[in-house]
What does this fold into?
Amino acid sequence: MPDTPLTPEVFDRAIVAIALTAGTDHRLVYVNDAFRDLFGDRQLGDPAREVFTEPGAERFVATLDAVLSDGTARQVTAPRTLACPDGGTVHRHFVYSCSPAGTPSGPGILTAAIDTTAELHSALETERLSVERLQALRRYEALMAATSQMVWLVHADGTADELVPGWEALTGRPFPETAGNRWLDVVHPQDRDRLATHWAAAARELPTAFEHVFRVRGADGGYRHVRARAVPIVRDDGPAEWIGTTSDIEDQWRNRLRERLLARAGAVTEAERADDAFAALAATLVPELTDVCAVYLLREPDAAGGDVVATRIASVARPGLPPLPPINRQTYTLGARARKAVSDRTPIVLEFADGNVPRGSIPEISARWLERAHATSLTLLPIVVDGAVVALAATADCEGAPPPGPADIDLQREVLQRAQAPLRQALALQRARHTAVVLQRAMLTTPPTVGGAALAGRYRPGSRNAEVGGDWYDAFTLPDGALAMTIGDVAGHDLAAATVMGQLRAMLRSIAFTRPHGHTPADTLRELDTAAEGLGVGSFVTAVHARLTRHGADGAWEVEWTNAGHPPPVLIPVTGPPRLLTGEDADLPLCVDPRRPRVTHHDPLGPGETLLFYTDGLVEVPGEDLGDGIARLCRAAADARHRPLDDLCEYLAGRVADVRDDIALIAFRPTTLAGTADRPR
It folds into this structure.
């Protein structure tokens, strides 16, 4: 206990409340202003038990006894209720520091009262928030577990923690401890680059949220769609942490895809051609279910056993793959696996490593393309319409993509079978159109073989209708050795037009063949016009009719021709630009006014020159001037003038990409007497 008496007046202006007691009964001998402000005036000279009478003060008095007894300083905490100036009260918390001190009256104790209310409230609030946060975290973990979501945290240093597990159960692999590229190993090969790029951009730009849907390889080896969502946590502009969730959305994604694809497949209702209908179906599957889809139409529906012949009529590939081989209507004999898919009506999957396609399993042109595209699998799916297998679809996955799973194959089949009505309509239209084309071709005789000249013709039916048309060409030898050559077009694309065409063609042949020498082409068309009117064959018809005769020993010919409102013939010389055979005044079409005179024109034809008759389907483009199409024909003819006549006709007819109208053309080319004429077909 200190022997030197304390001079308490030094604490008069201290900011801490100070009190000094003396003796064994702890008589109050001093308090400073700060004490009075906190506790009010207290009577000096009275014992502590009489001065401090508030509830709980007995702990304070006991502490004074203990300090006086052994001379050891002590602290005691206690709440106090203080009166306020407005008459109310306030609850405060204090720490009383009690130290031995000497007083003029003997041993005493110096007490410092420190207000710890704010600190205590802060500590209590911190504890309360900590408890609430712990409860919130437990609730969140329970919620995430209930919704089957994985919750993860990527720290600023790139390490990662799985807060709510599920990654290993989904993928069969432990959750990656780092957010580097190792976790991309289980991501679908075609999704990796896009996902890595998106995540890198998010880490760089720190958007309010990151969201991405991608596929991961499941524990069973198949791929499932997941959605990852994350938000950045930024502190003091430092590197961000990311907290996020990953949820398996495969069932949701597949249901939505199924609804979307089936709706698109069901919308294939406007296609008039089977080719267009199947092309629309193939486009429905690519790229959401497969990388490429080709459709082969079977020559004999429901073919089984023996050779099965098919024609590729549609093919679609996703962007980024090599260009597909052109659709050229080439036929293929199906391999054993394809025949089995057709006969069993069951999909067959062929797997191969990165484009190493076994030779002989599929057509060679397809195998070469699959190699360039680094294909990994080929799925053969029979397409059944009205109980018969009418086509075979081939879908392929490329560039590291795994083979399709059972759910993918089932959805592909469902989409292909969805458009039954339009496919049925398109196939019926195709069969009717095939019958019509056979009828049309039956009316077109094979051009005769002519000594000293080549003769060739072509007919291409229009693609926008299922009816026979009114286009025709004809060539036949006359009794005097001359050659008659005709091109004609009856307005319309129906059975009536075909009937008129057949009648006029037969009448023209009869008139030209039975009239004596000197009967001009104009005379022939005038008699045909008169007969058509008299017999009631009333229709709008254009035609060019010509008589060709040989002159001289050098292989030259002369053509006499008349034009009844038809596109002008083209004369293609050996060198120089082609020219059109036109008269000063165009004659009227047939079946308009039989009394109007017609004119016969004369032009020489030298060896190697080509005379071309054609119908407007070869040159007419909707919305374009007919003269532009004729000029385009002349340029193409000039480019191909040195081809054999058959090849020239095939080339010119093949340049029309979309054959909306029928095309008929016939060409004549003199040769030298020693030359060999091209065989017509």
Residues 117-146 form the longest helix (30 residues). The chain has four domains: 8-115, 147-248, 254-432, 443-670. The domain at 443-670 is CATH 3.60.40.10 (Phosphatase 2c; domain 1). The CA atoms of residues 34 and 176 lie 62 Å apart.
